[in-house]
Every structure is written in C-alpha cells, then in structure tokens.
Design a protein that fits this description.
about 190 residues; alpha/beta; five-stranded parallel β-sheet; 7 helices; 5 strands
C-alpha cells in the first residue's frame, strides 16, 4: 500500500501525524485487512524554503497540475512501485491512497499503473475537472470531512464518477481538513480494500 501525504507533508507525515503503522498493525491483528508492505514516499513538489505559504496555497494547488513538471512525482512513484515489486515478495496487487493534494497524485498514479493498482483511496481530494480514472475495474473510495475545505472538490469528483459510470464509494466523515479525519479515512479504507 502506498500512502501519499499532502502538500505540507513529507515521507514521515503519515506515521507521525496519521499513526499509519499502528493503524495497519491493529487492522491486521484484528483480521480486518491482509498483511502488507506500507510505502510512504516523499512527494514534495518544491523545496521547503520556496513553499508558497498558506496565503497562496489554494492558487498553487489548482495551478500546479498545469505546469511543465506535471506528473514528475507520479512517474517517480510508478518507478518506485516497480522497485518494490522486484525487491519484495509481493503479489503484484497494490493499493494507493492520498490526502488533499496527495489524493490528486494518487489518482494520477492509479491511471499510470492500472495493471497493479486495484483500490484507490482519495481523502479530502483536490482534483482537476478533467481527472477521471482510465480503468473502470479499479475500486475508488472518495472520502471528505463534513466541514472540509475541499468537500466541494470531492463531491464534484463523485458526481463525475457517477456520470461516467465508474465503480466507487463516496464516504463523508465528521470533521475538517485535518489528520483526525485522515486517520479515520485510513482506518476505514484498510477494511474496504
């Protein structure tokens, strides 16, 4: 399973703030999900010192997908997936989930690797209007918080998925655009995979 952090995160965010390893260990111990390798790559787009800051964050979020470095991170994750597949004894079946802008990255990676990604979790997603799955056999789970600043983006994506006839679930959880919601998303997603 690949977990992608959001725009302010780094490779340790899912563990430090989201308690991903503890959540996964508990679900495996309870028999609610299979044992798996958890991969949490660093997906930062810019060096920390040139981060746009909160004031301009939304503008950068929606603009970034259009600039010349589009999909650079997604291709790197695809290469990482090939390395993990050849290094570890895994089945070739994997899942990916991302939060906020990381959900956009996760959706793009799922489109690049429909051959091996079966389930896709999009937590508080920031998605472009033209972003839809390219493979209708993948299972998509779109999560939003009831008071999430990107709730509208998740709902629009849900409506586009319905219109296009893609298999997916839309799940609304109580909360905002924060780690409390994303921990709940991960916990639920692990059981649905």
């Amino acid at each position: 399973m690949y977990l992608i952090h959001g725009i302010n995160g780094y490779e340790g965010s899912w563990q430090e703030k989201g308690h991903a390893l503890d959540t996964l260990a508990a679900k495996i111990a309870q028999g609610l999900c299979p044992p798996m390798i958890l991969v949490m790559p660093d997906c930062n787009k810019w060096p920390y010192k040139v981060h746009p800051g909160r004031k301009n964050l939304c503008r950068y979020l929606f603009r970034y997908g259009r600039v010349s470095r589009e999909h650079e991170i997604e291709y790197s994750i695809s290469e990482l997936m090939a390395m993990v597949d050849t290094t570890y004894a895994v089945s070739g079946y994997c899942t990916i989930a991302g939060l906020s802008d990381g959900a956009r990255i996760a959706a793009n990676v799922a489109n690049l690797r429909p051959d091996c990604i079966h389930s896709v979790g999009l937590f508080s997603p920031v998605l472009h209007k033209d972003q839809l799955p390219k493979d209708s056999t993948q299972n998509y789970y779109v999560y939003v918080g009831t008071k999430d600043m990107f709730k509208a983006s998740g709902k629009r994506y849900h409506k586009r998925m319905i219109k296009a006839g893609y298999r997916h679930q839309f799940i609304e959880l109580k909360g905002r655009h924060d780690w409390k919601v994303w921990q709940a998303c991960l916990s639920d997603f692990l059981e649905k995979m």
